[in-house]
Design a protein that fits this description.
Layout: H1 26-36, H2 39-51
The structure holds zinc ion.
């Protein structure tokens, strides 16, 4: 069994994680990305996207529901 050299998740993890050449799992690499993202810019981008769904009458809630499928 292969385990992540950082978090020791196993290769048979239910989310189908992958391992890089250093033996670090994809979950750990995604976690690293969180530290380098420009969260302010991403929030502004999110506001632009959700503005298209905003209720303009003032009589209903603004609501966006997005589903993801985990394969
Ligand atoms: Zn890991």
């Amino acid at each position: 069994m292969i385990f992540c050299t950082r978090c020791v998740y196993p290769a048979n993890h239910p989310l189908n994680i992958t391992f890089d050449a250093q033996g670090v799992c994809s979950g750990c690499r995604v976690h690293e990305e969180k530290d380098t993202l420009d969260w302010g810019a991403r929030f502004e981008e999110l506001k632009k996207i959700t503005d298209a769904c905003r209720n303009t009458s003032g009589r209903n809630y603004d609501c966006v529901v997005r589903g993801i499928r985990i394969l």
